[in-house]
Amino acid sequence: MLTDLRYAIRMMLKSPGFAAVVVITLALGIGANTAIFSVVEGALLRPLPFPHAEELVRLYEAQDENGARSGTLNMSEQTLQQWREFGGDIFQGIAAATGANVTVGHTAGEPARNVQAARISQNFLIVLGLPPAQGRNFTNDEDRAGGPAVAMISDDFWRNRLGQRPDVVGSALELDGVPHTIVGVMPKAFRHPYRSDIWLPLALPPWTSATAPNHYIYSPARLRRGVTITQAEAAVQRMCAAINQTAPNPNNATGAYMPPLRESFVMDLRSKIAIIIGAALCALIIAAANFAGLLLARVIEREGELALRAALGASKQQLVRQQLIQALLFALVGTLSGLLIASWVTPWLFSMSPEGSDLTGSAMREFDYAVRMDWPVFGFAVGIMLLVGVGFGLLPAVRASRTDLRSPMTVAARGSTLDNGTHRLLGALVVTELAIAIAILMASITTTQYFRRLLDEPWGFATKNRTMFKTGLSDYLFADTAAKQNAIDATLTQLRALPGFQAATVTMPSPMNASRNLVTFNIEGAPPPEPRGFHLAYLRVAAPGYFKTMAQSLLRGREFLDSDSAGAMPVCIVTESFARRFWPGQNAIGKRVKWGRLDSPRPWLTVVGVVADMKAIEDPRDGEVIGMIARPLAQLLPLGSSQVDEVTYIVQSQGATQSEATIRNALAQADPRLAAYELNSLDRLADESRTTERFVFLLVSLFGALGLILAAVGLHGLLSLQVARRWREFGIRSALGATGKQIIELVAGEGARLLTLGFMLGALVTWATVRIIHSAWAEMPSPNLVACLAAVGILCAVATLACWIPARRASRVDPIIALRSE
């Protein structure tokens, strides 16, 4: 074994050019796959840091008996209470949480600053199985309306904001103007849910059957030991049926959709990352096929030596072992080089990925989401090394053991062509490379077209010269509706008075995002949809003049007015698609929409305006969402934090975006309790809203280019080997009068034949690839004629270059030298 290893090292050092080509080919394929795996491992594979994490699920409330994901909503207070009461045989515990923003610092003479927070139920950490690193959990007495003011903080907040105080537990922290006692510090890197730095008791108000449902609760749960998700969903459906029998209520849920908690964080990202993984694996297959082809070519060149070794007594097993060790040595060096490339590329790759973006990263960033080259990544690289070294190195090793003892030792053999079996094997490798390359190339061109279409798709409102920021409107910070309205009015007055500002308005949520809380509704004079009993739409809360400031076209009717106050007639503005869906060919102005179910105590809303549709970054769990319903801010504020817990200010400037300091100063003058956060230009947010699609486009394009280059190298290598083996034949042809052009055509014809077979197989591979992509990403278009022609043109150009070099070398064979060598 050691003798074979020393021999393999000598052969590698003896041919540094050949060794460099093999190592670079493997390093590119293995490095690209390892870098992708290091990102994917954190997003899709790394387990949650909780004991028995396989028991954790996320609960969604189903509105039909099928429990399909498309027809689900977040949990309501009503359903949460019912399932906790009657689901003890299904769940060990059901937790609840909702997002919040708290203001820190203004009472101590410091500028107010906003901190992301979460309101969690007393059993939230108990259900997850994660105790605080310091201190204790909330108590039942604290998790009730009017309970003691307590909080838990993140490890980062403790270290960076509070100076890592050893006596932090039991100290006071001002939140929204109220002193809170810090009772615990979370474990390091834990910021779940909502990437929070502060956790407060949820303190849900008591629920009664007359309470209108509000689906806003994030609800992780832990199944009973031994209960599967399928069994739990069936048991919940039976439980809901029993509840509806004993206490009929149209707001009662009929079932549950409960994906594993780990899966719920990434299920909308998984399919798109799978496309990238597929492209990376295709590039690896091309690299491995090249590796096998290069080693096979090397075996063919050494047929005489191998035949001599066999004649001197070397067994087939010894020849196979020697070639396998050589292949594994190349694979080892290629893997080490690939790991080096991956260590350079991974940080850049992560920064470009959806997981690396603060806007699009999944909930896995709330745990230990750092990308690192650890044992799973190393194990993945070793697995690839063994696959390539043994799996693809076996072909040339077996070929070496079948060396004919007669023909390689004859003089004529130095000018003989490849035998049919070897020629077919090498040709099959090249055709496979070309087929995969054209499939990746087609995919990269199609994703380019799709990405360009997404970028060109209008938002439905203006983003240029507009800046947005958010502020909290906590009920703790502002005691009543009048206080909230005064703070908003004072802020708008200050912003509008700033030099260079043309307009300022306020809305909820950000115009770049779909609403966190959907609105349920029914149409007057139309039967409610079955079985849910309501439609869904995105809810927007807007101040007077919002649509004008955003340059969102008012098609009919009017905008909201100052007279649309809390005591005035409830009104709404709908989008064009909404009006077209429910009142086709009619004037929507004056029509009425019921907020909630038809039997709900909530009011009827009169449509006073229709605006153009806008693009929404939708939540895939929203199911069938029909357009948007906008409500006046003044009519929603009295409902408290359950409907409006934060607002988004949008300012329009004449030229360059105003500085952050200018806006914060204006906010401090309006009301020192307000703190601006998520301050950004709409242009930048529009650009970052497609981080996932851009990432897919970039990587598929890079893998397409890599596959194209590797396929060209494979085609070039096969034709070069053919030319070397047919050196004598080309010399004879030249001596008999063949011109250089004819010899070029002869060699190029072989390349064209392989290219044609590659195109034919590539068409089948592309068709299969498109079917797979469409099943995971329905919005992705099928390759069109432009994409097909572009892919064919690019591959033909690269293949022509790969064929031209060996063909030109063949045309320059000197017949005298070629014949003299015999």
Structure description:
The structure is a single chain. With 822 residues, the chain is an alpha+beta fold. It is 48% helix and 16% strand. It has 23 helices and 24 strands. Strands 5, 6, 7, 8, 9, 10 and 11 form a seven-stranded mixed sheet that branches. A hairpin with an 8-residue loop joins strand 20 (592-595) and strand 21. Helix 12 (420-456) packs antiparallel against helix 19 (691-725) and helix 19 packs antiparallel against helix 21 (740-776). The longest helix is centred in the middle third of the chain and has 41 residues, at 261-301. The protein starts with a helix and ends with a helix.
How many DSSP E strands? 24
**If helices are DSSP runs of H or I spanning 4 or more residues, what is the number of helices?**
23
- Give the quaternary arrangement of the chains: single chain
Helix content: 40-55%
Whole-number radius of gyration? 34 Å
Largest sheet: 7 strands, mixed
Structural class: alpha+beta
Strand content: 15-25%
Mean pLDDT metric: 80
Question: Which regions contain 5 or more consecutive residues with pLDDT less than 50?
Answer: 408-415
**Shape summary:** elongated
Q: Termini distance?
A: 38 Å
Key structural traits:
822 residues; alpha+beta; seven-stranded mixed sheet; 23 helices; 48% helix; 16% strand; elongated
Outline:
The protein is of the alpha+beta class and 822 residues long.
Layout of strands and helices, then pairs:
Layout: H1 2-14, H2 16-45, E1 56-58, E2 60-62, E3 72-73, H3 77-86, E4 91-94, E5 97-104, E6 113-120, H4 124-128, E7 134-135, E8 150-153, H5 155-161, E9 172-175, E10 178-185, E11 198-201, E12 220-223, H6 229-246, E13 255-257, H7 261-301, H8 303-311, H9 316-352, H10 375-392, H11 394-401, H12 420-456, E14 466-472, H13 481-497, E15 501-508, E16 518-523, E17 535-542, H14 546-549, E18 554-557, E19 571-575, H15 576-582, E20 592-595, E21 604-611, E22 625-632, H16 633-636, E23 646-653, H17 660-670, E24 677-681, H18 682-688, H19 691-725, H20 727-735, H21 740-776, H22 785-811, H23 815-820
Parallel strand pairs: 6-11, 8-10, 17-22, 19-21
Antiparallel strand pairs: 1-12, 2-3, 2-13, 4-12, 5-6, 7-10, 8-11, 9-10, 14-23, 14-24, 15-17, 15-23, 16-17, 16-20, 18-21, 19-22, 20-21
